[in-house]
């Protein structure tokens, strides 16, 4: 391990239950912008050095998430939750390979890389901890600096100390060798019977090492989350951060930013117009000059340059090419691919299908497990009958095909280039190139409809009362 690699380790404390969340999910797995709270912490800290996460309550869920999404993370178990100091004890063997450690709570999703780096750069040795000025310091440990820097828990404060507004943020930057020595000296002689990490400051003072408070300008970055109200609040703050970044950085235009929600993995390639009440989640990519109208929801979608998504469109795990028009009221899902200049219109569902360049599915249709060539026109009410009760089957439609309204394409079936189907047809056999396929009963006109109805009823004229 090189000197740089040895220099800084990060320990994230993520073993708590989060009782006030009133949830079966571990606290750090509570969703913020459709990602676990822990995701946001990891995203901020991973660029700074190796990370170890201390897990406990619901640890199997947390460990699975980390293995799947942050495979380089070291997962360490705290089987018994005996306080923050005890949690750090679980990392002592891993920490022995490093010079310094940044210790962060896993319920701080607003922490940024810049703030964490500022704390690291401000460290002068010994033990440093982050502080901020609180408008309402209730519940926080107060920071005292005379005659020496220390933290006094609120319950132990005098009236004068209670009036102080600089409080402990719960983020520490500590030299590892004296930390490991100090952990051995921690006791649990307190009302909770736990090992408190804050008590480590006394050990550093006894060793004659510096203890420093690093004051942060913003309390948002170190805001902890303890209940559903705070969870919603950090979601709004993060949403605003991401939107501000895209609006300033790429020229994204949001008509009402307060009603738009985007996830942290969303990417805008350039200018776009986003109407009110739009949601964009997952690894969605939005091209240049795209418009997304109100009440549309995009998740893991790719939208090409110049495309327009009208209102009430849902797109999931699918891609739209350039100059595509979609909606209103359509559903594009399950690896569907809508090619350049195509149109998916009103009350249309496209599932796991390819819509070729310039093709149109204007209204009231279902395209499932289908491949449409270029310049295809699908008449209203057309569906691909792709499921036989046991298996899904494919429909293949060539270039320049005209499918008449209310056509049932019973898969597996193939429609050749330049072919046409008659309106109301049920197509069960392949249609050759250039052919017209009509699959419906011959129309029969029966004269004297009223007389026929009298015969069926078995009687003569009705007697008027």
UniProtKB/TrEMBL annotation:
Pathway: Nucleotide-sugar biosynthesis; UDP-N-acetyl-alpha-D-glucosamine biosynthesis; UDP-N-acetyl-alpha-D-glucosamine from N-acetyl-alpha-D-glucosamine 1-phosphate: step 1/1; Bacterial outer membrane biogenesis; LPS lipid A biosynthesis; Nucleotide-sugar biosynthesis; UDP-N-acetyl-alpha-D-glucosamine biosynthesis; N-acetyl-alpha-D-glucosamine 1-phosphate from alpha-D-glucosamine 6-phosphate (route II): step 2/2. Mg(2+) binds at residues 107, 226. It is found in: Cytoplasm. It comes from the Bacteria. GO terms for molecular function: glucosamine-1-phosphate N-acetyltransferase activity; magnesium ion binding; UDP-N-acetylglucosamine diphosphorylase activity. Its EC number is 2.7.7.23, 2.3.1.157. The keyword Transferase applies. GO terms for cellular component: cytoplasm; membrane. The active site is at 363 (proton acceptor). UDP-N-acetyl-alpha-D-glucosamine binds at residues 13-16, 27, 78, 83-84, 141, 153, 168, 226, 333, 351, 366, 377. Keywords: Acyltransferase, Cell shape, Cell wall biogenesis/degradation, Cytoplasm, Magnesium, Metal-binding, Multifunctional enzyme, Nucleotidyltransferase, Peptidoglycan synthesis, Repeat, Transferase. Residues 446-465 are annotated as: Disordered. Residues 1-228 are annotated as: Pyrophosphorylase. GO terms for biological process: cell morphogenesis; cell wall organization; lipid A biosynthetic process; peptidoglycan biosynthetic process; regulation of cell shape; UDP-N-acetylglucosamine biosynthetic process. It catalyses: N-acetyl-alpha-D-glucosamine 1-phosphate + UTP + H(+) = UDP-N-acetyl-alpha-D-glucosamine + diphosphate; alpha-D-glucosamine 1-phosphate + acetyl-CoA = N-acetyl-alpha-D-glucosamine 1-phosphate + CoA + H(+). Binds 1 Mg(2+) ion per subunit. Residues 251-465 are annotated as: N-acetyltransferase. Its cofactor is Mg(2+). Residues 11-135 form the MobA-like NTP transferase domain. Homotrimer. In the C-terminal section; belongs to the transferase hexapeptide repeat family. This is Bifunctional protein GlmU. It comes from Dethiosulfovibrio peptidovorans DSM 11002.
